[in-house]
Amino acid sequence: MRITEILFSSIRRLNVDYSNDFRQIELNTINVFIGENGSGKSTIIDMVRSLSDLSVIPSLAKENPLSGAPPFYLVKFDDSGSKFVSMAGPSDVDLCLTKYLSCRIEDSNTQLFLGDISKFNVDKNNNILKGVNFRLTNEIYYRPCCTPSLEKANKYYIEELNKIENKLNGSYNRKINEDGSLKKSIPVNSNNLIAAKDGFIESWFEEDKSMSNNLPLSWFPSGWRAYAEITSYLRDCKKGSVCLLEEPEVNLHPRLQRLLLKRIEEISIDNELQILLSTHSPAMINASFSDQVSIYHTQGKTVDILDNEKILLDDLGYKASDVFQTNCVVWVEGPSDRIYIKHWLSSFDDKLIEGVDYSFMFYGGRILSHFDLNDNGDDMISMLKININSIIVMDSDRKNENDELNDTKKRIINSCRDGSAKVWITGGREIENYLNSDVLKRSIASVHPHFYEQIDTDKWSNVLKYLIKKDSKTRTADKVKVAKKYIENCKNKALYTPELKKEITAIYNFITNARN
């Protein structure tokens, strides 16, 4: 059973306007609702929660809908079933308008209830609505935002933490030697965390590798506990259920938040769960770009698919200096370099996303002399202040093997030796000298119909220079047009020299390390 869409009008602050139109949200497998406090995240979750907990219903109606139309919501399912609730002022004129509601509840067009209910007296409503139940094929589970509460590990708790043992700060991996190699002798149970007697957990830490520590669950970091409580909770949910999570990122730092959303997706696929979760965290925006995940921006009156991250970050109160809006910046001289590098990177991993995993910035030739990796005063622009994970790609501009690099390039290389950034100086004259000569020749000929032949093709030449047949005059091909045609002629297949593959591998590793 899956919820396909939710339709609503005048539910709390959502869709409160002067028209009688309703709003609708089409749901995916995992649905992330992100926005500031009071923007409607919990309202969406509560509409679904009310299907299994009718006491939520009175809290949902807008008391004075501007349109004059009664508040309602309709939840549709993939089995063509639907659950409908509408509310208005009390039908009994003797009842107080501010304390009672007239409520109609329908299940797939079959009326289950029509009458007045209290807005505030839960016990009274439980008696009035006794015996009223939506017919639900599967369960609806709800987990509110809370601090870790378990005092004893449940069935999946320790297993979930051991799945991310290399991300648990300070924990000791008993399978790996100091040099990173696999140990020859590995304990039968080599997990970092092992269930012990009396609810204690046998734990291994970096600063005490010779023996374990037996600790109660309450002594563990709150983030570890929150992660394990949420993931083990989901694994315990009935297969095919709908699971509602309020702000699961609480207590988690950004890396654990991203790991959590990834793990939620894995569990939802394994157990056929549908997830609705609310969050304030921008880390959750970039955590997953799977087709299984949809991200919605709640804005008080509206709920829409996220299409403008800047507006969202403004709503949440983040400043540009608070977050890096891409994980890594690749500095290149011009747009043709971007075209080639993006093409080569995609052959390593076609799931890398420009603008999230990495972005390009152009420094335009001699303008590079105004940049530096470090903050060296007002006369220089620090690249690392724009993004701490920076890759600088520079053409050597050498015309032969013995030519020296200019002073700007030497300065950038020297300032990079502390490992804070990566520099790639081309092995030949410029990045075009890595290209396959046959494909490049065809590309220049396609872009320039008067092309006759290239002048030179060695690694120290300007390989974009060519002759035209009619008068043997020298021309220089258009860098960007040729780059686009070259990629097209490669038919999405990267053509590497050994040197190029080594450099792209290093860039790819730098980007993935920044992401992880």
How do you describe this structure in short?
With 516 residues, this protein is of the alpha/beta class. It has helices at 41-49, 122-128, 157-163, 222-236, 254-271, 309-316, 335-348, 383-386, 407-415, 437-447, 479-490, 498-515; strands spanning 3-9, 23-26, 30-34, 72-77, 82-88, 100-107, 110-118, 140-143, 193-195, 201-205, 208-215, 242-246, 274-279, 293-298, 303-305, 329-332, 359-362, 371-372, 381-382, 390-394, 421-425, 451-454, 465-468, 474-476.
How would the blueprint of this fold be written?
Layout: E1 3-9, E2 23-26, E3 30-34, H1 41-49, E4 72-77, E5 82-88, E6 100-107, E7 110-118, H2 122-128, E8 140-143, H3 157-163, E9 193-195, E10 201-205, E11 208-215, H4 222-236, E12 242-246, H5 254-271, E13 274-279, E14 293-298, E15 303-305, H6 309-316, E16 329-332, H7 335-348, E17 359-362, E18 371-372, E19 381-382, H8 383-386, E20 390-394, H9 407-415, E21 421-425, H10 437-447, E22 451-454, E23 465-468, E24 474-476, H11 479-490, H12 498-515
Parallel strand pairs: 3-13, 3-14, 8-12, 12-13, 16-17, 16-20, 18-19, 20-21
Antiparallel strand pairs: 1-2, 1-4, 4-5, 5-6, 6-7, 9-10, 10-11, 14-15, 22-23, 23-24
Protein name: ATP-binding protein
Keywords: ATP-binding, Nucleotide-binding
InterPro entries: ATPase_AAA_core, Bact_Antivir_Def_Nuclease, P-loop_NTPase
Percent helix, as a range, is 25-40%
What is the total tally of β strands?
Answer: 24
Mean pLDDT: 84
Class per helix and strand makeup: alpha/beta
